[in-house]
Amino acid sequence: MFFALLVPDPGAHRAVARDRLADTVAVVLALAYGSAMMLLGDATRPGAILVWQADLAIGVLCAAALLVRRRHPTSVAVALLPFGAVSVTATGPIIVALFTLAIRRRPPLLLLLGAINVGTGAVYFLLHDHPAAGMWMDLLVRSVITAAALGWGLFVQAYRRLTTSLREHAARLEAEQVLREEQARLTERARIARETHDVLAHRMSLISLHAGALEVRASVSPEELSTAAGAIRSSAHEALEELRSVIGVPSARPEPPQPGLADMADLIGSARDAGMTVDYVNGVPVDGPPAQLGRTAYRIVQEGLTNARKHGSGPAASVLLTGEAGRALRITITNPFSGTVQAPSPGDGAGGGRGLVGIGERVALAGGRVTHGPARGSFRLEAELPWPR
After folding, report:
1. What's the CA gap between 205 and 346, in Å, rounded?
2. Residue 72 dihedral angles phi and psi, to the nearest 5°
3. Using an 8 Å Cβ cutoff, are 331 and 320 in contact?
4. H-type helices in 262-329, by residue range?
5. Could you say which of 4, 91, 121, 309 has the lowest number of CB atoms within 10 Å?
6. What is the pTM of this model?
Protein backbone atom coordinates (compact mmCIF):
# COMPACT_ATOMS: atom_id res chain seq x y z
CA MET A 1 0.00 0.00 0.00
CA PHE A 2 2.88 2.36 0.80
CA PHE A 3 4.41 1.83 -2.63
CA ALA A 4 0.98 2.32 -4.23
CA LEU A 5 0.90 5.79 -2.66
CA LEU A 6 4.40 6.60 -3.92
CA VAL A 7 3.94 5.36 -7.48
CA PRO A 8 1.64 7.68 -9.46
CA ASP A 9 -1.30 6.23 -11.33
CA PRO A 10 -0.90 6.89 -15.07
CA GLY A 11 -4.66 6.71 -15.58
CA ALA A 12 -5.30 9.38 -12.94
CA HIS A 13 -2.71 11.67 -14.54
CA ARG A 14 -4.31 11.24 -17.95
CA ALA A 15 -7.75 12.03 -16.51
CA VAL A 16 -6.48 15.21 -14.85
CA ALA A 17 -4.73 16.32 -18.03
CA ARG A 18 -7.88 15.61 -20.06
CA ASP A 19 -10.04 17.64 -17.66
CA ARG A 20 -7.63 20.58 -17.75
CA LEU A 21 -7.60 20.56 -21.53
CA ALA A 22 -11.41 20.44 -21.61
CA ASP A 23 -11.59 23.38 -19.15
CA THR A 24 -9.21 25.41 -21.28
CA VAL A 25 -11.17 24.71 -24.46
CA ALA A 26 -14.46 25.54 -22.71
CA VAL A 27 -13.20 28.88 -21.39
CA VAL A 28 -11.65 29.85 -24.73
CA LEU A 29 -14.78 28.96 -26.70
CA ALA A 30 -17.01 30.78 -24.22
CA LEU A 31 -14.95 33.97 -24.39
CA ALA A 32 -14.62 33.73 -28.17
CA TYR A 33 -18.36 33.38 -28.67
CA GLY A 34 -19.20 36.06 -26.09
CA SER A 35 -16.68 38.50 -27.57
CA ALA A 36 -17.98 37.94 -31.08
CA MET A 37 -21.56 38.57 -29.94
CA MET A 38 -20.40 41.73 -28.12
CA LEU A 39 -18.73 43.10 -31.26
CA LEU A 40 -21.56 42.13 -33.61
CA GLY A 41 -24.46 43.00 -31.31
CA ASP A 42 -25.71 46.03 -29.40
CA ALA A 43 -23.10 46.02 -26.61
CA THR A 44 -20.88 48.56 -28.43
CA ARG A 45 -23.73 50.76 -29.72
CA PRO A 46 -24.95 53.95 -28.05
CA GLY A 47 -27.57 53.28 -25.39
CA ALA A 48 -26.04 49.98 -24.25
CA ILE A 49 -26.77 48.88 -20.71
CA LEU A 50 -23.04 48.74 -19.84
CA VAL A 51 -19.92 50.07 -21.44
CA TRP A 52 -18.20 47.36 -23.45
CA GLN A 53 -15.31 47.14 -20.96
CA ALA A 54 -17.73 46.25 -18.14
CA ASP A 55 -19.57 43.85 -20.43
CA LEU A 56 -16.29 42.10 -21.24
CA ALA A 57 -15.26 41.96 -17.56
CA ILE A 58 -18.54 40.27 -16.61
CA GLY A 59 -18.02 37.77 -19.40
CA VAL A 60 -14.50 36.96 -18.17
CA LEU A 61 -15.75 36.41 -14.62
CA CYS A 62 -18.52 34.16 -15.89
CA ALA A 63 -16.01 32.19 -17.95
CA ALA A 64 -13.87 31.67 -14.82
CA ALA A 65 -16.88 30.11 -13.10
CA LEU A 66 -16.82 27.38 -15.76
CA LEU A 67 -13.82 25.81 -14.02
CA VAL A 68 -16.14 24.34 -11.37
CA ARG A 69 -19.00 23.40 -13.73
CA ARG A 70 -18.31 19.63 -13.46
CA ARG A 71 -18.70 19.52 -9.69
CA HIS A 72 -21.66 21.93 -9.60
CA PRO A 73 -23.28 21.97 -13.07
CA THR A 74 -26.73 23.10 -11.96
CA SER A 75 -25.49 25.78 -9.56
CA VAL A 76 -23.12 27.26 -12.14
CA ALA A 77 -25.80 27.38 -14.83
CA VAL A 78 -28.39 28.96 -12.52
CA ALA A 79 -25.84 31.51 -11.22
CA LEU A 80 -24.79 32.60 -14.72
CA LEU A 81 -28.25 32.96 -16.28
CA PRO A 82 -29.09 36.40 -14.76
CA PHE A 83 -25.95 37.93 -16.29
CA GLY A 84 -27.40 37.24 -19.75
CA ALA A 85 -29.85 40.10 -19.14
CA VAL A 86 -27.10 42.74 -18.85
CA SER A 87 -24.00 41.33 -20.60
CA VAL A 88 -23.66 40.02 -24.15
CA THR A 89 -20.20 38.54 -23.44
CA ALA A 90 -21.73 36.43 -20.65
CA THR A 91 -23.86 34.58 -23.21
CA GLY A 92 -20.79 32.51 -24.19
CA PRO A 93 -20.17 31.09 -20.67
CA ILE A 94 -23.93 30.60 -20.25
CA ILE A 95 -24.14 28.45 -23.39
CA VAL A 96 -21.16 26.33 -22.24
CA ALA A 97 -22.75 25.95 -18.78
CA LEU A 98 -26.04 24.81 -20.34
CA PHE A 99 -24.18 22.33 -22.55
CA THR A 100 -22.39 20.88 -19.50
CA LEU A 101 -25.69 20.68 -17.65
CA ALA A 102 -27.34 18.87 -20.59
CA ILE A 103 -24.72 16.11 -20.36
CA ARG A 104 -25.67 15.36 -16.75
CA ARG A 105 -29.33 16.27 -16.20
CA ARG A 106 -32.79 15.35 -17.47
CA PRO A 107 -34.71 17.30 -20.17
CA PRO A 108 -37.36 18.96 -17.93
CA LEU A 109 -34.77 20.99 -16.02
CA LEU A 110 -32.94 21.78 -19.25
CA LEU A 111 -36.11 23.10 -20.92
CA LEU A 112 -36.80 25.37 -17.96
CA LEU A 113 -33.29 26.85 -17.87
CA GLY A 114 -33.20 27.13 -21.67
CA ALA A 115 -36.45 29.13 -21.61
CA ILE A 116 -35.02 31.40 -18.91
CA ASN A 117 -31.93 32.01 -21.04
CA VAL A 118 -34.09 33.00 -24.00
CA GLY A 119 -36.14 35.24 -21.70
CA THR A 120 -33.02 37.13 -20.57
CA GLY A 121 -32.58 38.09 -24.22
CA ALA A 122 -35.93 39.86 -24.12
CA VAL A 123 -34.92 41.63 -20.89
CA TYR A 124 -31.66 42.80 -22.49
CA PHE A 125 -33.61 44.17 -25.50
CA LEU A 126 -36.01 46.05 -23.26
CA LEU A 127 -33.19 47.58 -21.20
CA HIS A 128 -31.27 48.74 -24.31
CA ASP A 129 -32.10 52.29 -25.42
CA HIS A 130 -31.36 51.97 -29.14
CA PRO A 131 -31.33 48.31 -30.26
CA ALA A 132 -30.21 47.76 -33.85
CA ALA A 133 -32.85 45.13 -34.65
CA GLY A 134 -36.18 44.02 -33.36
CA MET A 135 -36.71 41.79 -30.35
CA TRP A 136 -37.52 38.82 -32.57
CA MET A 137 -33.93 38.79 -33.80
CA ASP A 138 -32.48 38.53 -30.26
CA LEU A 139 -34.99 35.85 -29.32
CA LEU A 140 -34.33 33.87 -32.50
CA VAL A 141 -30.54 33.91 -32.08
CA ARG A 142 -30.68 32.93 -28.42
CA SER A 143 -33.28 30.24 -29.10
CA VAL A 144 -31.21 28.64 -31.87
CA ILE A 145 -27.94 28.75 -29.88
CA THR A 146 -29.63 27.51 -26.70
CA ALA A 147 -31.38 24.65 -28.53
CA ALA A 148 -28.12 23.67 -30.22
CA ALA A 149 -26.21 23.61 -26.91
CA LEU A 150 -28.89 21.59 -25.11
CA GLY A 151 -29.37 19.19 -28.03
CA TRP A 152 -25.66 18.59 -28.35
CA GLY A 153 -25.38 18.01 -24.61
CA LEU A 154 -28.26 15.49 -24.65
CA PHE A 155 -26.61 13.70 -27.56
CA VAL A 156 -23.34 13.45 -25.64
CA GLN A 157 -25.27 12.17 -22.59
CA ALA A 158 -26.96 9.45 -24.68
CA TYR A 159 -23.66 8.53 -26.33
CA ARG A 160 -21.93 8.20 -22.97
CA ARG A 161 -24.71 6.02 -21.63
CA LEU A 162 -24.55 3.85 -24.72
CA THR A 163 -20.78 3.40 -24.53
CA THR A 164 -21.00 2.71 -20.79
CA SER A 165 -23.69 0.10 -21.42
CA LEU A 166 -21.61 -1.50 -24.17
CA ARG A 167 -18.52 -1.58 -21.95
CA GLU A 168 -20.52 -3.15 -19.12
CA HIS A 169 -22.00 -5.67 -21.55
CA ALA A 170 -18.54 -6.51 -22.90
CA ALA A 171 -17.19 -6.87 -19.35
CA ARG A 172 -20.13 -9.10 -18.45
CA LEU A 173 -19.56 -11.27 -21.52
CA GLU A 174 -15.87 -11.50 -20.69
CA ALA A 175 -16.67 -12.49 -17.11
CA GLU A 176 -19.15 -15.11 -18.36
CA GLN A 177 -16.52 -16.43 -20.76
CA VAL A 178 -14.01 -16.71 -17.92
CA LEU A 179 -16.67 -18.45 -15.82
CA ARG A 180 -17.42 -20.89 -18.65
CA GLU A 181 -13.73 -21.64 -19.08
CA GLU A 182 -13.33 -22.20 -15.35
CA GLN A 183 -16.40 -24.43 -15.32
CA ALA A 184 -14.97 -26.39 -18.23
CA ARG A 185 -11.69 -26.81 -16.37
CA LEU A 186 -13.51 -27.98 -13.24
CA THR A 187 -15.59 -30.40 -15.29
CA GLU A 188 -12.49 -31.78 -16.94
CA ARG A 189 -10.75 -32.15 -13.60
CA ALA A 190 -13.77 -33.96 -12.21
CA ARG A 191 -13.82 -36.25 -15.25
CA ILE A 192 -10.12 -37.02 -14.88
CA ALA A 193 -10.55 -37.69 -11.16
CA ARG A 194 -13.51 -39.98 -11.79
CA GLU A 195 -11.77 -41.85 -14.60
CA THR A 196 -8.57 -42.13 -12.54
CA HIS A 197 -10.51 -43.60 -9.63
CA ASP A 198 -12.25 -46.12 -11.86
CA VAL A 199 -9.03 -47.17 -13.60
CA LEU A 200 -6.79 -47.38 -10.57
CA ALA A 201 -9.37 -48.92 -8.25
CA HIS A 202 -10.06 -51.74 -10.69
CA ARG A 203 -6.44 -52.51 -11.54
CA MET A 204 -5.16 -52.10 -8.00
CA SER A 205 -7.81 -54.46 -6.71
CA LEU A 206 -6.56 -57.09 -9.19
CA ILE A 207 -2.98 -56.53 -8.04
CA SER A 208 -4.08 -56.75 -4.42
CA LEU A 209 -5.95 -60.00 -5.11
CA HIS A 210 -2.89 -61.63 -6.72
CA ALA A 211 -0.57 -60.39 -4.00
CA GLY A 212 -2.95 -61.60 -1.29
CA ALA A 213 -3.06 -65.04 -2.84
CA LEU A 214 0.75 -65.24 -2.76
CA GLU A 215 0.81 -64.00 0.83
CA VAL A 216 -1.60 -66.59 2.28
CA ARG A 217 -0.08 -69.58 0.53
CA ALA A 218 2.77 -71.17 2.43
CA SER A 219 4.48 -72.76 -0.55
CA VAL A 220 4.34 -71.50 -4.09
CA SER A 221 5.92 -73.28 -7.01
CA PRO A 222 8.15 -71.30 -9.36
CA GLU A 223 5.56 -71.65 -12.13
CA GLU A 224 2.78 -70.28 -9.94
CA LEU A 225 5.02 -67.49 -8.72
CA SER A 226 5.91 -66.60 -12.30
CA THR A 227 2.24 -66.63 -13.32
CA ALA A 228 1.21 -64.41 -10.39
CA ALA A 229 4.09 -62.02 -10.97
CA GLY A 230 3.16 -61.80 -14.64
CA ALA A 231 -0.45 -61.05 -13.74
CA ILE A 232 0.64 -58.33 -11.32
CA ARG A 233 2.97 -56.84 -13.90
CA SER A 234 0.27 -56.98 -16.58
CA SER A 235 -2.29 -55.32 -14.30
CA ALA A 236 0.16 -52.56 -13.34
CA HIS A 237 1.05 -51.99 -17.00
CA GLU A 238 -2.60 -51.83 -18.02
CA ALA A 239 -3.31 -49.42 -15.15
CA LEU A 240 -0.57 -47.08 -16.38
CA GLU A 241 -1.78 -47.30 -19.97
CA GLU A 242 -5.37 -46.53 -19.01
CA LEU A 243 -4.19 -43.71 -16.76
CA ARG A 244 -2.29 -42.18 -19.68
CA SER A 245 -5.41 -42.42 -21.83
CA VAL A 246 -7.44 -40.64 -19.13
CA ILE A 247 -5.00 -37.83 -18.38
CA GLY A 248 -3.91 -37.39 -21.99
CA VAL A 249 -0.83 -38.04 -24.06
CA PRO A 250 1.60 -35.72 -25.94
CA SER A 251 0.11 -34.08 -28.99
CA ALA A 252 2.59 -35.88 -31.27
CA ARG A 253 0.83 -39.18 -30.49
CA PRO A 254 -2.85 -39.89 -31.19
CA GLU A 255 -5.02 -40.32 -28.12
CA PRO A 256 -6.06 -43.98 -27.71
CA PRO A 257 -9.78 -44.77 -27.79
CA GLN A 258 -11.61 -45.07 -24.49
CA PRO A 259 -12.98 -48.52 -23.56
CA GLY A 260 -16.57 -49.27 -24.41
CA LEU A 261 -19.09 -52.07 -24.60
CA ALA A 262 -16.93 -53.97 -27.08
CA ASP A 263 -14.22 -54.22 -24.41
CA MET A 264 -16.56 -55.68 -21.80
CA ALA A 265 -15.44 -59.26 -22.53
CA ASP A 266 -11.81 -58.31 -21.85
CA LEU A 267 -12.86 -56.68 -18.58
CA ILE A 268 -14.71 -59.83 -17.50
CA GLY A 269 -11.76 -61.93 -18.60
CA SER A 270 -9.29 -59.93 -16.53
CA ALA A 271 -11.54 -60.33 -13.49
CA ARG A 272 -11.71 -64.09 -14.06
CA ASP A 273 -7.94 -64.27 -14.48
CA ALA A 274 -7.61 -62.59 -11.09
CA GLY A 275 -9.53 -65.46 -9.48
CA MET A 276 -13.10 -64.17 -9.57
CA THR A 277 -16.04 -66.26 -10.69
CA VAL A 278 -18.02 -64.00 -12.99
CA ASP A 279 -21.26 -64.96 -14.73
CA TYR A 280 -21.60 -62.64 -17.71
CA VAL A 281 -24.70 -62.39 -19.89
CA ASN A 282 -24.81 -59.81 -22.67
CA GLY A 283 -28.31 -59.41 -24.07
CA VAL A 284 -27.53 -56.23 -26.01
CA PRO A 285 -27.92 -56.26 -29.84
CA VAL A 286 -24.81 -56.74 -31.93
CA ASP A 287 -24.74 -53.17 -33.27
CA GLY A 288 -24.66 -51.95 -29.65
CA PRO A 289 -25.38 -48.54 -28.12
CA PRO A 290 -23.58 -45.27 -28.95
CA ALA A 291 -19.93 -44.95 -27.95
CA GLN A 292 -20.59 -42.61 -25.01
CA LEU A 293 -23.28 -44.90 -23.63
CA GLY A 294 -21.03 -47.94 -24.04
CA ARG A 295 -18.22 -46.18 -22.25
CA THR A 296 -20.51 -45.33 -19.33
CA ALA A 297 -21.69 -48.95 -19.15
CA TYR A 298 -18.08 -50.19 -19.17
CA ARG A 299 -17.14 -47.94 -16.24
CA ILE A 300 -20.22 -48.99 -14.27
CA VAL A 301 -19.39 -52.69 -14.67
CA GLN A 302 -15.74 -52.01 -13.88
CA GLU A 303 -16.64 -50.24 -10.64
CA GLY A 304 -19.23 -52.88 -9.78
CA LEU A 305 -16.64 -55.66 -10.06
CA THR A 306 -14.18 -53.62 -8.00
CA ASN A 307 -16.77 -53.22 -5.23
CA ALA A 308 -17.56 -56.93 -5.40
CA ARG A 309 -13.90 -57.83 -4.84
CA LYS A 310 -13.53 -55.32 -2.01
CA HIS A 311 -16.74 -55.85 -0.11
CA GLY A 312 -18.24 -59.15 -1.21
CA SER A 313 -18.16 -62.22 1.00
CA GLY A 314 -16.68 -64.23 -1.85
CA PRO A 315 -14.78 -63.60 -5.11
CA ALA A 316 -17.83 -63.99 -7.31
CA ALA A 317 -20.24 -61.76 -9.20
CA SER A 318 -22.80 -61.84 -11.99
CA VAL A 319 -23.18 -59.21 -14.71
CA LEU A 320 -26.31 -58.89 -16.85
CA LEU A 321 -26.71 -56.43 -19.74
CA THR A 322 -30.08 -56.02 -21.43
CA GLY A 323 -31.82 -53.37 -23.49
CA GLU A 324 -32.43 -52.02 -26.97
CA ALA A 325 -32.46 -48.73 -28.83
CA GLY A 326 -35.41 -46.51 -28.09
CA ARG A 327 -35.84 -47.89 -24.57
CA ALA A 328 -32.98 -48.24 -22.11
CA LEU A 329 -29.73 -50.07 -21.39
CA ARG A 330 -30.01 -51.97 -18.09
CA ILE A 331 -27.00 -53.13 -16.12
CA THR A 332 -27.41 -55.49 -13.19
CA ILE A 333 -24.46 -56.57 -11.05
CA THR A 334 -24.86 -58.86 -8.02
CA ASN A 335 -22.30 -60.42 -5.73
CA PRO A 336 -22.49 -62.54 -2.55
CA PHE A 337 -22.93 -60.53 0.61
CA SER A 338 -23.35 -62.24 3.94
CA GLY A 339 -23.91 -59.11 6.02
CA THR A 340 -20.77 -59.64 8.09
CA VAL A 341 -18.81 -57.33 5.84
CA GLN A 342 -19.77 -53.68 5.68
CA ALA A 343 -21.73 -52.90 2.55
CA PRO A 344 -20.44 -50.06 0.43
CA SER A 345 -22.45 -46.94 0.90
CA PRO A 346 -22.24 -43.42 -0.56
CA GLY A 347 -21.04 -42.04 2.72
CA ASP A 348 -18.19 -44.51 3.15
CA GLY A 349 -15.10 -42.53 2.38
CA ALA A 350 -12.70 -45.43 2.86
CA GLY A 351 -14.48 -48.11 0.90
CA GLY A 352 -16.53 -48.28 -2.23
CA GLY A 353 -18.58 -45.22 -1.42
CA ARG A 354 -16.62 -42.97 -3.72
CA GLY A 355 -17.03 -45.49 -6.52
CA LEU A 356 -20.78 -45.66 -6.02
CA VAL A 357 -20.94 -41.86 -5.94
CA GLY A 358 -19.01 -41.83 -9.22
CA ILE A 359 -21.45 -44.31 -10.71
CA GLY A 360 -24.33 -42.11 -9.57
CA GLU A 361 -22.74 -39.07 -11.21
CA ARG A 362 -22.16 -40.91 -14.48
CA VAL A 363 -25.71 -42.22 -14.59
CA ALA A 364 -27.11 -38.77 -13.71
CA LEU A 365 -25.10 -37.14 -16.52
CA ALA A 366 -26.46 -39.75 -18.91
CA GLY A 367 -30.02 -39.00 -17.74
CA GLY A 368 -30.59 -42.40 -16.12
CA ARG A 369 -31.11 -43.77 -12.64
CA VAL A 370 -29.24 -46.16 -10.37
CA THR A 371 -30.12 -48.19 -7.26
CA HIS A 372 -27.91 -50.34 -5.05
CA GLY A 373 -28.04 -52.15 -1.73
CA PRO A 374 -28.09 -55.56 -0.02
CA ALA A 375 -30.91 -57.94 -0.94
CA ARG A 376 -31.35 -61.59 0.09
CA GLY A 377 -27.73 -62.40 0.86
CA SER A 378 -26.29 -60.46 -2.05
CA PHE A 379 -25.41 -56.92 -2.94
CA ARG A 380 -27.30 -55.70 -6.00
CA LEU A 381 -26.41 -52.76 -8.25
CA GLU A 382 -28.87 -51.77 -10.97
CA ALA A 383 -28.38 -48.97 -13.47
CA GLU A 384 -30.73 -47.89 -16.23
CA LEU A 385 -29.42 -45.62 -18.99
CA PRO A 386 -31.54 -44.04 -21.75
CA TRP A 387 -30.73 -45.47 -25.17
CA PRO A 388 -31.86 -43.18 -28.00
CA ARG A 389 -32.83 -44.57 -31.35
Report:
1. 19
2. -135, 65
3. yes
4. 264-273, 291-311
5. 4
6. 0.48
